[in-house]
Each structure stands twice: as C-alpha cells, then as structure tokens.
Design brief:
The protein is built from eight helices and five strands; from the N terminus they run βαβααβαβαααβα. Strands 2-3-1-4-5 form a five-stranded parallel β-sheet, with helices on both faces. It is an alpha/beta fold and 179 residues long.
Length: 179
Amino acid sequence: MGSSESRLVVVRGNSASGKSSIAAGLREAFGRGLAVVGQDNLRRVVLREHDRHGGANIGLIDTTARYALDAGYHVVVEGILSAARYGPMLRRLVADHRGTTRCYYLDVPFEETLRRHATKPDPQLQAAVTERHLRDWYRERDLLPDGIETVIGADSALPDTIERIMRDTGLADLPALDV
C-alpha cells in the first residue's frame, strides 16, 4: 500500500494533547498532497459513533488512510486511537505501508491536558467536554507495543514538534504534490 516514496505519520495521545494542532501544522508546512485522517472527524462527524471496541470508525480510518496513500497522498492519521481498540489496525497499517512510516505518542500530563482544553477556540466543545470526561478518557502512556512510537513530551513546543516530524519523516525535503 502506498509507494516507496509515500509517508505515513501516526500521531496519538490523550484528548487535548495537541494531535490536531500538529496535524494541521504538518499540512500547513507541507502543502498540497498531505491527507489528514482525523479520528474525531470520521468517528464523531461522519459516523456519529461512540468510541467502542469493534466500532465502524476503526475500519473507516484504515480504509481512508490506505485509499489516500494509494492515490498518491502522504497521510497523517491522528487521534486518541487507544492502543487496546486501534492498536491492531494501526500495526497492520504500519506493516503494510511501503514507504516511510513514523509513529508519535504525545505524552502530556493530565493537568496539562486540562490547561490545553481550556484554550480550545470552540466554546461549545469546552462546555460539552468536562474535566470528568477528560479524566475518564485519560490513559497514561498508552503506547503501542514493540516500541514503534517516538514519545514527545509536553515540553516540546508546537512549532518544534512540527519541525521534528517534518524532518524525521523526510517531508521537509519533499515538494508539495500537485493533486
């Protein structure tokens, strides 16, 4: 799946750890040709599904990422993507990709996720997601097995994290695609 030139980036972490901001920053830094496959969009918006074992969104994330890679896009898959629910799909996706693949886990302490959540620009989201929700969802260092993820701590500033991923994946050295 994909090509030897394609890039697959997986960005995981707890709610309000910075995943969506990183994905948006990667797209901005790269330009056209980088598809963002967001768990929240596919699960909550497209399917309006609860996050559960065996959920339809797991296959939809997998299918969407594969389709975009086969269509010539580089892909960022981002979301909480808990290891227990999404790990098998992510491991298959990583194993099947023929190009460069890098996985990152944002290791952000709970108190910092609370602070970051309070800065989100959508007041409805802030009101709908309470501290209790965040606490219930929080999983400390929910890493995938086999050490396939690079852990990025809360001390890494957003621009530094984006630059690091661009460099690690080789996206910084590639031209934007004409798609």
